[in-house]
Amino acid sequence: MTRLSAEERRSALVQAALRVIARRGVTAATTRAIAAEAGMPLASFHYAFRSRDELIRELVAIVVESERLATMKSLTADVDIRSAVRAGLQAYFDLVVTEPGREQAMFELLHYALRTPGLGDLPRAQYESYYEVARVLLREGAARANVTWTLPLDEVAKLVVSLTDGLTLGWLADRDDAAAARLMDSAADFLATLAEPVSHSEPVTDPQGNPDTQPDPKSRPEEHS
Amino acid sequence: MTRLSAEERRSALVQAALRVIARRGVTAATTRAIAAEAGMPLASFHYAFRSRDELIRELVAIVVESERLATMKSLTADVDIRSAVRAGLQAYFDLVVTEPGREQAMFELLHYALRTPGLGDLPRAQYESYYEVARVLLREGAARANVTWTLPLDEVAKLVVSLTDGLTLGWLADRDDAAAARLMDSAADFLATLAEPVSHSEPVTDPQGNPDTQPDPKSRPEEHS
DNA sequence: GTCTATAAAGTGATAGAC
DNA sequence: GTCTATCACTTTATAGAC
User: What digits encode the pLDDT tens for the residues A147-183?
Assistant: First the structure.
């Protein structure tokens, strides 16, 4: 093996681990399997990482970030909000169908982190990243379609993430493409009902939809973007 | 250990396995851990089951069935459909909060089955059971509220299961009870928009909403129950 | 029927030669 | 810096004594 910097080795091992996990699951991602996938002897693993969990932690962070960047690009040219939402769901779903193992790996990593002491803070970060992606896409999509969301942006984003999670799990279980398409249709119909045309005299309070600034969670405000 | 029939042993081991998985995850459910939890020597495990996977297979079937029976009881006395749906979601969510490990175990078992050759047919059965529960509750709830669903029952059921899956995963990740409550509010609002008062001249075609009998998935019929 | 003892294979991690 | 060889441990599964 030619000489690599410690950082190069770490990156190569993380990418190798991701391939192994996508192909055969988190359980199969042993230090030996990861090192072999990266074409390194086992000892190089522990030269680059203190432990297997240290690699898993870096892996989740890197994959979440790369998913964030990839999904951010999925804004389409649609002008009406229903079509834009439907297209966004389809773009995500195409990703799932193209690489089911990869998306499955994200769920497995979530559950692994939930069960592993010392990794317990990862799930929150993972979902916060999902929510942020959803918020950005929903905000930009609404702006392009000249609509505002009638629920706080955070809540719409949570709905989107919940729906896509459910969509993904259901499809992974039954591989029913047509049912997934119908589900995305219904979800897009629903989300579109949460948007209304902008009123030009709209107040500009709380443009972020920050949950901490909501005066009363019980009240359901009329205008957010 | 006193003498037990083979069937009693199998049942005891399955229940012990479920406790271990709920407490510490699928990975921790080794034959040793399961036998110890059941208070048996290791060899009794292999006397009752040919292999660990044979137990897992039986475990999933039993747990799915017991969840089916438990959830079937969750019909409330609410008469308007929005309240009934909201109460149903709350009943499910209370179950998740009370026993998070158990619900987490169902996801872990799904992913385990998806990765294990010979268990590949379990996920489909698991989700078909979820869908059936949802269909029964939605049909009965609609009947009590004197409404009909404006989408095929199957599609409403898939929406419900997707939303609850997403709800559960999100809560497991961030443990945000208030956010989960808001999500259930939005979901109930949405699902209620898919119901309309019964028209008494309603035709009685396709009362089951069977997907195989739908003439054209692209068309979105107006009346189903 | 029941259980101790052990086989056979796999695991994360490391010592120490080069 | 790199890698072979190995440690200490855990896993599933079974042989064979009682």
Answer: 999 999 999 999 999 999 999 999 999 999 999 999 9
Nearest CA in chain A to B113: A173
Q: Is the CB of B114 under 7 A from strand C?
A: no
Mapped onto helix, strand or coil, the DSSP state of residue A106 is helix
The answer to which of B22-31, B147-156, B196-205 has the lowest mean pLDDT is B196-205
Which bases of chain C are contacted by protein, using any atom under 7 A from a CB? 1-6, 10-16
Question: What phi and psi values does residue A147 have, to the nearest 5 degrees?
Answer: -130, 165
* A79 Cβ contacts chain C strand, under 7 Å: no
**Domain for residue B175, yes or no?**
yes
Instruction: Decide: CB of A25 under 7 A of nucleic strand C.
Output: no
User: Does residue B26 surpass a pLDDT of 60?
Assistant: yes
- Judged against a pLDDT cut of 80, whether residue B117 lies above it is answered with yes
**Cα dihedral A216, A217, A222, A224 in deg (nearest 10):** 100
In a domain, A54, yes or no: no
Please name the residues in contact with B108: beta carbons below 8 A apart, sequence gap of 6 or more.
A111, B21, B25, B26
Is residue B214, in this structure, part of any structural domain at all?
A: no
SS3 B2: coil
Which residue would you say has higher pLDDT here, A208 or A161?
A: A161
Report the CATH number at residue A145: 1.10.357
Q: Are residues A142 and A40 in the same domain?
A: no
Band of residue B118 on the pLDDT scale cut at 50, 70, 90: confident
Instruction: Examine the pLDDT at A1 and tell me if it is beyond 80.
Output: no
Residue B111: count other Cβ atoms within 10 Å of its Cβ. 23
Position B76 scores a pLDDT of 83
Q: Measure CA B72 to chain center.
A: 10
- Whether B114 and B102 map to the same domain: the answer is yes
Structural domain span for residue A141: 62-213
Q: Verify that B58 and B162 share a domain, yes or no.
A: yes
d(CA B150, CA B20): 43
Residues B174 and B149 in one domain: yes
How many structural domains are present in chain B? 2
Looking at the domain assignment, is residue A67 inside a domain? yes
SS (H, E, C) A27-40: CCCCHHHHHHHCCC
pLDDT tens-digit readout, A54-105: 999 999 899 889 888 888 887 888 889 999 999 999 999 999 999 999 999 9
CATH code (residue B112): 1.10.357.10
